[in-house]
Specification:
With about 550 residues, the protein is of the alpha+beta class. It is built from 15 helices and 23 strands. β18 (about 435-440) and β19 (about 445-450) form a beta hairpin. The chain is globular. InterPro entries: Metallo-depent_PP-like, PhoD-like_MPP, PhoD-like_sf, PhoD_N, Phospholipid_Metab_Enz. It comes from Novosphingobium beihaiensis. This is Alkaline phosphatase D family protein.
Length: about 550
């Protein structure tokens, strides 16, 4: 698509320093007029879908949206008007209603001068019995690490109906922080950490230039939820590890800016949490576990600070703060919504209850031998982390306090609610950068399974423990955690799921590389769960 460049905007861009942007294409797009970032759709229902585009005019511009049964737009099925306004970074969102259920549609936006956006494809959800439904699961797409080959691979598929992104759609870090070396051709803007509204908008604008990400949005509707990096690393209700109030201002201001930019640039509503019904086959619940009500993460380092008896300090931490029932990820109001949703879904005859959320739910302890296997030449912080994790593991404590493992009472409440409702629970997760197939239990009773996805590009354990062969590390972790059926700690990609009334099959797709733009050489691993069993099917 050719972009029209306006001379007045070019002069204005120079005044604001945009002409100095170094990322190829970003400066041009930010001073371009017209449709700059393609189209996207999201949050489908049986009779509606949310449509998104970005259009830069001389001010507010009224766009007309057309939804059609055919790609040539000869059979118009619906549409409407929406305003693209500079107040919202020229992003426009429109919920089109009155559509037929279980249908694929084509859509586009038309500007007042007759220019048209790209043509997108989307679909509505079914209302009755469904024999099969395909879902793609993504998380942790850090552009400087490499190419979004996972998006490219999924966008070509004909057996998927819906994409689910559970967070870290982009990363807030300044270039050179994570990763230390930015891959050529994957440069990002701004050249500093995103803190202000303008920063977050610019980072979105940069990521959404990626053609593979744009193609994924163009071909499929998406259900999306933020995780921490759309705000700042390891955030919680009132702060973040990567936020310094002394230099970056009030957390509430930064959080509001990040939330606003996300809602402007993503095909999402303003609902913090929601659910989506796939006929009688499944209810997908999309909770918010990151910034609205999350209690601050606990720290093993803080628990051991100044202590001489490590075992005693860890025991006190385990039996005290770690197990506190007051610690929550979702808050009481959202928990009540979710648990009622579980009950209503089962009572309606829906086969599967799918929880698409940000962080790993399964209980994962570090291998006790981890400290011995970390070489003396390793980074001192890595050695200390390995030693603390190994000591904690021997006391029954997990290694990641930022996951559900850091909130065991809240996790138990959720799993108990699922069992009491007689759910067939399938949890979808991201955040960790590694692949995990976890069986979830309430005591000795099976409660469900978890397909925790690996990252699109972000590095996993292979970068923190480079001296341990990934296969050996996986074997050690599985031996330490009997409920862990499968893990891969070194490869990037995505997960796809095929839902039928009798079984859910999840496949981890491992791309051969992110260092080059290719979808060749993909390797797969599949696990399945049969309805009523709540455990993975054994080979």
């Amino acid at each position: 698509m050719t972009l029209a460049i306006d001379r007045r905007l070019l002069i204005k861009a120079g005044a604001f320093g945009l002409a100095a942007l170094s990322t190829p294409g970003v400066a041009q797009v930010l001073i371009a007029r017209g449709f700059t970032h393609g189209i996207a759709s999201g949050e489908p229902a049986a009779h509606s879908v949310l449509l998104w585009t970005r259009y830069v005019g001389s001010g507010e511009t009224r766009l007309h949206c057309e939804v059609s049964h055919d790609e040539e737009f000869k059979q118009i099925a619906g549409g409407g008007d929406v305003v693209a306004s500079p107040e919202h970074d020229n992003c426009a969102k429109l919920v089109v209603t009155g559509l037929e259920p279980d249908k694929w549609y084509f859509y586009r936006f038309v500007a007042p001068d007759g220019t048209k956006s790209e043509v997108g494809r989307t679909r509505t959800l079914p209302v009755s019995d469904v024999s099969r439904f395909g879902i793609g699961l993504f998380s942790c797409s850090n552009m400087p690490f490499g190419w979004f080959n996972a998006y490219a691979h999924a966008a070509k598929r004909g057996d998927l109906d819906l994409m689910v992104h559970v967070g870290d759609y982009f990363y807030e870090y300044q270039p050179g922080h994570y990763p230390e070396t930015v891959m050529q051709g994957r440069e990002i803007e701004p050249k500093h950490e995103t803190v202000t509204l303008a920063d977050y908008r610019l980072r979105f604008a940069c990521y959404r230039l990626d053609s593979d990400l744009r193609r994924l949005h163009q071909q499929f509707p998406m259900i999306a939820q933020w995780d921490d990096h759309e705000f700042a690393n390891d955030d919680w209700q009132n702060g973040a590890e990567n936020h310094d109030p002394k230099t970056e201002g009030l957390w509430s201001v930064r959080k509001a800016a990040a939330m606003r930019a996300y809602r402007e640039w993503m095909p999402v509503s303003d609902d913090l949490y929601n659910s989506f019904q796939i006929g009688t086959l499944a209810t997908i619940f999309r909770p918010e576990t990151r910034v609205s009500a999350r209690a601050k993460q606990l720290s093993l380092g803080d628990a051991l600070k100044g202590q001489t008896d490590i075992a005693k300090a860890l025991a006190a931490f385990r039996d005290g703060p770690w197990m506190s029932p007051e610690r929550t990820l979702m808050g009481a109001t959202q928990e009540a919504w979710l648990y009622k949703g579980f009950r209503d879904s089962v009572k309606s005859g829906t086969r599967w209850q799918v929880l698409a959320q940000e962080i790993v739910m399964g209980n994962l302890r570090a291998p006790p031998a981890l400290a011995d296997l970390t070489p003396a030449s390793a980074d001192p912080k890595s050695r200390m982390r390995a030693m603390v994790s190994a000591a904690a593991s021997k006391m029954g404590l997990p290694f990641n306090m930022d996951s559900w493992d850091g909130y065991p009472a809240a996790r138990e409440r959720l799993l108990r609610a699922a069992r009491e409702a007689d759910c067939n629970l399938v949890v979808l997760s991201g955040d960790s950068h590694n692949a995990w197939g976890n069986e979830l239990s309430l005591g000795s009773e099976a409660a469900g399974v978890e397909f925790a996805g690996h990252s699109v590009t972000s590095s996993g354990f292979e970068s923190f423990l480079p001296t341990i062969a990934p296969r050996n590390l996986a074997a050690m972790v599985q031996e330490t955690n009997p409920a862990l059926t499968f893990t891969d700690t070194s490869r990037r990609g995505y997960v796809s799921l095929q839902l039928t009334p009798e079984e859910v099959q999840g496949t981890w797709h491992f791309l051969s590389t992110v260092a080059a733009r290719t979808t060749e050489g993909v390797q797969d691993h599949t696990l399945g769960v049969k309805w009523g069993e709540r455990r993975f099917t054994k080979a």
